[in-house]
Amino acid sequence: MSTAATPEVLWAQRSSKTDEAKNFIYLTITVPDVQKSNLKLDIKSQSLAFSGHSDSLKRDYHLELTFWGEIVESETKINHTAKNIALVLRKKELKEEFWPRLLKDAAKVHFLKTDFDKWVDEDEQDEAPEDDLAGSMGGMEGMPGMGDMSSMMGGAGGDFGGIDFSKLGGAASQEDDDDDDDDEEMPALEGDDTEEVKKGSSEKAAAKIEEVA
């Protein structure tokens, strides 16, 4: 039996002492070609456990993390793609300072790396564009393909088998289509139709004048 590989993990963070939505961890687990039916994810207040299998690569993955601080499991958001699993983990303690590190253990691990595409320095957070809060994931609230972990996991103990990603995928585009429909203007009346409207209005006005007289 082959030994499970430890996947590469990228991370970055934001912090805030007043805004919960700006107090979180970006976490990306690099596991290409792992279908949702072949993976399990168990997230607790201070830990994360992941296991998965890639049929195409014939490779098993396993990962266990113990966080430096606590997170709010129910606020976890996730995006599963053919290349990775990206998560946003809400920090429990509102604090202006960054976590000094991701893991409780200070020892360096070879698979954990800084996600420089999402990282900003602690003193530059306020200067970062608002959209930067969710980076390429598209926003904390409207994240394409994302969902609330508490509703997706549905008491299944972190088993991704209970997640219907097809329902999560097209939500944003559907809302955009609705917005486009609302923005469409009514076409201007032309030709005979316009004349009929004007004529009808004039007749109504004349009738009102006669009633007054």
TrEMBL record:
InterPro entries: CS_dom (IPR007052), HSP20-like_chaperone (IPR008978), p23-like (IPR045250). Residues 196-213 have a biased composition (Basic and acidic residues). GO terms for cellular component: cytosol; nucleus. It comes from the Eukaryota. Residues 121-133, 174-195 have a biased composition (Acidic residues). Residues 136-145 have a biased composition (Gly residues). Residues 121-213 are annotated as: Disordered. GO terms for biological process: chaperone-mediated protein complex assembly; protein folding. GO terms for molecular function: Hsp90 protein binding; protein-folding chaperone binding. CDD domains: p23_hB-ind1_like. Pfam families: CS (PF04969). Coiled coil: none annotated. Gene3D superfamilies: 2.60.40.790. PROSITE patterns: CS (PS51203). Residues 4-103 form the CS domain. PANTHER family: CO-CHAPERONE PROTEIN DAF-41, TELOMERASE-BINDING PROTEIN P23 HSP90 CO-CHAPERONE. Belongs to the p23/wos2 family. This is CS domain-containing protein. It comes from Diplocarpon coronariae.
